[in-house]
Every structure is written in C-alpha cells, then in structure tokens.
Amino acid sequence: MSIDITREFLDNLEEEILAGKKENYQEFINDSHPADIAEIVDKIDEEAAEILFRSLENELGAEVLMEIDEDLRAKFLEGYNGQEIASELIENLDSDDAADLINELPSDQRREVLDNIEDEQQALDIARLLIYPEGTAGSLMGTELIKVYDTWRVLQCVKEMRKQAEEIERVHAIYVVDASNKLLGTLSLKKLLTTSTKTPISEVYSSKVQYVEINTEAEEVANYMQKYDLVVVPVVDPIGHLVGRITIDDVVDFIRDEAKEDYNLASGLTDEVEEDDSILSITRARLPWLLIGLFGGLLAASVIGRYETDIEIIPQMAFFIPLIAAMGGNVGVQSSAIIVQGLANQSLSGGTITRLLKELGVATVNASILAATVIGSSLFLGYSMALALTVAVALFAVIIVAALIGTFVPLILNNYKVDPALATGPFITTLNDIIGLFLYFQIGRLILA
Questions:
Q1: Residue 146, Cβ neighbours under 10 Å: how many?
Q2: Closest CA to 337 of 435, 433, 422, 226
Q3: Is the backbone of residue 177 left (phi > 0), alpha (psi -120 to 50) or beta?
Q4: What distances in angstroms separate CA 22 from CA 7, 9, 51, 299, one per listed residue?
Q5: Is the C-alpha dihedral spanning 430, 434, 437, 443 positive or negative?
Q6: Maximum separation of any 2 CA atoms in the chain, in Å
Q7: Is the pLDDT of residue 362 over 80?
Q8: How confident is the prediction for the chain on average, in pLDDT?
Q9: Position 3 pLDDT exceeds 70
C-alpha cells in the first residue's frame, strides 16, 4: 500500500510512538512498503524513529535499515552488538546489501559480525564480497542467483531450481553453467515450461548472454546495463566462471551516489554534507574550495593591480571588468559541464582534437554574436568606439579561451584518473577569471595605447 506522508501524518505518528501506543500503528506499519517506512523514519524525531525501527520484525527492519539515511543508520547500529547485527540484520539481507552494511561498521566490529553469522556459506560469500575494491562490479554484485548445469534434463532442472529458489527472494534469471561453473548462457522460463521434461538443458538454453567481468568499473557496468536495457547482469571472474549477479537497483544506488559526489565537487564541497551535520563538519567540507577561491580572487586582484595605471588613464575600463569575468566563467562552466556529462555516460564521439574543434566552433559563433552585441550596447551607452572595440575583442578572446579550458581540463583530469567533475566547480571559474582579466587589459593596451 502507498502512504501519503504529510507533515500532519508524521506529527500524529510521532506522538503515538513517543506515547507508547504501539497498537495504533504497528499493524499499519507492518503492512507498509520498506521504502515508505524508511521515509517515515528519516523524517520523524530521532528518538521516535529508533523506537519505530526497533519495533519492526527482523526481516522488515533489515530492509528498512538499508533504505534510511546513512548517518541515521550508523546511529541505530551503535545500539547493536556484533551478534545482534549478524542474527537480526545480516542474515535477513542479500549478500550485496550485507557486505555494504558490514563495510560501514568500525573495522574491529566487522570480524565479530562475520564470526556470528550462523550460515557458513553466507559468511563466506559476504567475506569474498568485502575483498573487491569499491567502484567495481565485484563490490556491486550479490551471490544469490539460480544456476543450472548444461548436463541436466528439464525435469531435474525444475527440481533443483525449486530448492535454490527457497533461499532467494527474487528470481531475475536462470543461468546455465558447465561442470566447472563456467557461464554458458541463460535459460528462459518459457522454454523451461514448454519443453519436454526429458530434454537436455544443453539443447534449450541460449548462449547469447550479456555479462560483465568482476573487475569492471561500476560506471562501465551502469552504462552496459543501460545500453542493453538489462534488469540484471551476471558477473564472471577473469576465466569466465559465474560468481554473482548485479541488479538494476544496485546500479541505481551507485549512480545516485556518484551524482551526489559530482554535485559536491561541482559545488565546491570536499565531503558530502547533510543539513543536520554539525557546523564544524559543514565548514570542513566547504572551506577548502573557498580558500582556493580566495587565493584565486587575490591573484585576479593582483592582475588588476598591475594595470592600475591603465585604469587611471581610462577609468571606463573598470566598468567592464565584471562582464569579462562573468562571461569567461559562464562559458567555461558550460563547456566543462557538457564534457563531464559526456564522459560520465560515455556519449562523447570522436577524439580529443575533434571535440576541441567542435567546442571552438560553438565558442566562435557565440563569441561573434556577443562581441557584436557589446559593441552596439557600448556605443548606445555613450562609450567611445575604441573602448567598445576593446571590450568586444577581449570578450571574443575570453570566450574562446574559456571554452578551450572548459573542454581541455576535464579531458586531462579524466586521462589521469581524476574525477572530471572537479573541473565544473570553482576551479574552472577562478582560472577563467584570472586569464580573462589578463587578456582584457592586454588587449586594452594594444587598442587604446
């Protein structure tokens, strides 16, 4: 059932929870979707949220825990010991979610949790998942899947699938492997239901199967699943053995986290911050880039200072400094944003030179139109033709240079395995400000000399 989560609803529920009126909401909560419960937990008072969470059955509570805010989840986990985390939470989660949860625990508690998992195979699967580097297919995958052997006949296949399905919440696909566990293909449910029970699986499975290698970058996995419109993709080791599967919800979570990280970089934040974080935490996240902006501003001021005499001779030049700085920053951010987006979804076509030439062409057209506009506007406002021409030529040059910087810097960062989103933030704006002001005054000296 879907819940209309209004402020009034949350206030009433919070009152009932804090008043201990469990009978008024328990049945309603247990019938709700974990995502709806997680939204409620995130939005109500922390004390009420923990009471509500603790009232949930273990299986439902484990699902809700993985949906709530990461900071709140950490606070809830502080109230559990290793044995409780293992029995009440981990054993009710898929292996990929369980591995993610254990990764969030303090290092000294991880071993305690693993040692307290009763199912040895589950503990082994989770331990293996913890080995894979973050941001790879191995870190995203789960080990819960249905697999059948190519030597089986349909009847045996159905019997074995029933046994496997008892341990799996959702069946996304049926994978066919050989005796060495090498992935051979997939088996459709339709074929399984419409084929004679005596038919060998080797005669009915499809060998056309999309898969990813365990060390494939997560971003590449996301693009791969998008390209082939996959809900689930099998994961193999370097020699083709089936080791797990990645579902679309795992990929969506990764994309969401990457988008947050890129947004933080573009906004000049070194860490992800929440509105309820402490003043010190928020300051620590914002200050580094603000300091870079400060030093960049001081450099820009020193550039202006070098041309103090020019400004004294022609004071009107100072009027156009904000225009030059703003246009350079805007064009640079536009160009870098397009490149970063293209790198993220692998939609950039052609080589570096081709991309630079294309951006140069776009910048030239825009610069020509804007330069002509600024000449007309300057003359209309009563400035001299020489000053209008100076501003126009400088604006043209600044736009071209800013577009090239906005294009080239993300490509360089990406080439050196640095997140190109870094180039869409204060860094690119500050750099273009400094270069733009230098070009403006140098062109002014040439034309107005």
A1: 18
A2: 422
A3: beta
A4: 20, 16, 10, 63
A5: negative
A6: 97
A7: yes
A8: 87
A9: no
d(CA 194, CA 288): 64
The pLDDT, as a whole number, for residue 441 is 93
Structure tokens at 300: 């820009």
* Tokens encoding 22: 């469990």
Q: Taking the CB of residue 240, how many other CB atoms lie within 10 A of it?
A: 16
Question: What pLDDT sits at residue 286?
Answer: 74
Q: If you search the block for the tokens 């625990």, which residue do you land on?
A: 105
Helix (H, G, I), strand (E, B) or coil at 118: coil
The reported pLDDT for the residue numbered 424 is 62
Question: Which residues, at least 6 apart from 100, have a Cβ–Cβ distance to it below 8 Å?
Answer: 66
pTM for the structure as a whole: 0.69
Confidence of residue 216 (pLDDT cuts 50, 70, 90): very high
Amino acid at 331: V
* Cα distances (Å, whole numbers) of residue 174 to 126, 150, 157, 251: 22, 12, 10, 20
For the segment 166-180, the average pLDDT, to the nearest whole number, is 87
Residue spans of the domains in the chain: they are: 7-140, 146-247, 279-448
Contact indicator for 198, 154 with CB cutoff of 8 Å: yes
Q: Which of 409, 406, 414 is nearest to 436 (CA)?
A: 406
Q: Say which DSSP state 319 is in.
A: G
User: What are 323-351's pLDDT values in tens digits?
Assistant: 999 898 889 888 887 887 777 666 666 66
Tell me if 130 sits within 8 A of 102, measured CB to CB.
yes
Q: How many helices (H) and strands (E) does the chain have?
A: 21, 6
CA-to-CA dists, residue 277 to 26, 181, 282, 284, angstroms: 31, 48, 7, 11
Residue position matching structure tokens 């805010």: 69
Q: Which CATH architecture has domain 279-448?
A: Orthogonal Bundle (1.10)
* Average pLDDT of span 23-30: 82
Task: Tell me which CATH code domain 146-247 carries.
Answer: 3.10.580.10
What CATH number does the domain located at 7-140 have? 1.25.60.10
Closest CA to 429 of 352, 342, 331, 360: 331
Residue owning tokens 């810097």: 409
Token pair of 198 as six digits:
């005596």
DSSP H or E run through 170: none
Q: How far is CA 354 from the centre of its chain?
A: 28
* Closest to 346 measured CA to CA, from 220, 215, 217: 220
Alpha carbon distance 293, 427 (integer Å): 7
